[in-house]
Amino acid sequence: MTDLCIIGAGPAGFTAAIYAVRAGLSVRLFESSLYGGQIVNTPDVDNYPGLPGLSGAELAMKLYEHAARFGVEPETRTLTRVALHGEVKTLYAGEEAIPCRSVIIATGASHRKLGCPGEERLTGRGVSYCAACDGAFFRGKTVAVNGGGNTALEDALFLANACEKVYLIHRREEFRADRANIDAVKKRANIEFLLSRTVKEIRGEQKVEEIVLSGTAGQEEVTLPVSALFIAVGLQPNTALFEGQVALEGGYIKAGEDCRTNVPGVFAAGDVRTKDVRQLITAAADGAVAAIAAGKYLA
Hints:
The chain has 6 helices and 19 strands. With 299 residues, the protein is α/β, with parallel strands linked by helices. Strands 1, 2, 3, 4, 5, 6 and 19 form a 7-stranded mixed sheet that branches. The chain has a 5-stranded parallel sheet with strand order 8-15-9-10-11, with helices on one face. Strand 2, helix 2 and strand 3 (75-76) form a beta-alpha-beta unit. The radius of gyration is 21 Å and the shape is elongated.
């Protein structure tokens, strides 16, 4: 029987596999689609220590090669259900039952999309879902942020430090963010509010050049020339498979910095767990923590 099954082959899952095998555990790593997670859609990764200038696809390949050196390669399987309680955990891929002694859930979270024309085509070419990851590429430029919660306002404040101008677009007249963040953005001279507006279209040939805004209160359409659009309308944790199996909080798997869930032998790592910072490096750190915790549990 396999010591540890890891669900999700992104930075958290790959790191967990590397640490677990080095600790002497037998490991299987499952991924339903392309390995690498969200980073494969990032053209430039500039915030992972020691590896500046890589594309997301190149970093994903390095993670794959590193895990493969230890004999772990992702198995492309779509898991249809799981049974995580008891000493033996069982994953199901259709009718196939896969037993194991412990599980690390590293299925990540998906950015909510606007669904407007140009969004998919220009993702990674000015359309971004992470200001901390990509903001530095637009220093001195005019950019826009779409969203009305704390993440959107914090992104706008972050970008205002480096960008010439930041448009803050929200579909309502009032923000949903904390009062401190609202007060902070109001004090920044280079942040302009565009309220009761939604992004209708994102335009550009090879990169973002302009966005078209429609009004939710009958205003005329507006076209804004911008170099980037940062979309901050929320994350959707990939946890549907685990409902009723582990405790969830706001859709995320409830687990602290030790990555332990409420079910013995089941751990959560990366963007799928409850946490404040969801970055490439924190996902990798979670993978290491979860693998070490799984080793201790099995011992």
